Amino acid sequence: MTETPLADGQLVLSQDDGIARIRFNNPARRNAMTLAMWQALGDVARDLPAHTRVVVLTGTGDKAFVSGADISEFPTLRRTPKQVAAYNATVHRALSAVADLPMPVIAQIRGYCIGGGLEIATRCDLRLASDDARFAFTPAKLGLAVAADEVNALARLIGPAATADLLFTARQVPAEEALRWGLIARLVPGASLEAATDELATQIARNAPLTLRAVKAALRAGPDPDMATRAAVEAQVAACFASADYAEGQAAFAEKRAPVFTGT
After folding, report:
1. What is the CATH number of the domain that holds 154?
2. Could you say which residues of the chain have pLDDT below 70?
C-alpha cells in the first residue's frame, strides 16, 4: 500500500486493490480541518484514479473523525468578508468533490464528528461508527450561519425534525441516537471499527464497478430527476448491460465461481 502525504501531511492518501483511503491527520487538534486540508480534500477527490472502486474516509487516532474546522485559523484566514467568501468557497468545493465521487464512499467514524466533520460525513454514501462516536453541528454556539445546502444535506438523511433538533440545540448526539435517526448505517464496537470498515469496503470493491456507479448515480438523481439527469442515469444502466462485466457475471454464475470484474 502506497501512502501520499498532502497538506504538509495533514491529509494522507493510500491506495490498494481499488480502495482509496483518505485519512485526516491533525490529531493534536482532533483532526480539525485547516484551510490547507479543505483544499487538499477537494484536490484529491477530484483527481482519484478512474479505476478506484471504493473510497474510505477516516481520521487519525481514536479521538475524532473530524472535530470541525480549525477555528484557530479564523482570526487570520476568515477576518474580512473577502476572506470569508474565499474560505467558504474552498470548503464548498471539497464537500462537492466528495459528494460527486462516482464510486461508493464510506465514512469510518470514531470519536468526535462535529461541524465540518459532519458535513464531510453527510457527503458519503455509508457511515460506520464506533460506539463512542459523538455527532454535533454547532453554528448556533458560534454565531455562524448555516447554508441551505448544509441544512438540506442533513434533512435528506435524517428528516427535518431530527435536523432541527441537531441544529437548534447544538448538542452532542451519541452514536446510538444517530443510528436511530439513520445518520449512520452501522454501529460497531470501537475495537472492531477498522476491521468492519475494511470488510465492507472489500465486499463492495469485489462487485461490478459500472453497476455500483449506476446505482450511485440513481441515488444522487433522486426520485424525480430532470430529463437530462434521467437520461444520464439511463445511459449508465444501459452501459452495464453492454459491458464485459455483464458477460463475466453471467459466466461466473453459470460456472459457480466468483466473478472477476474489470469495470469494462
Report:
1. 3.90.226.10
2. 1
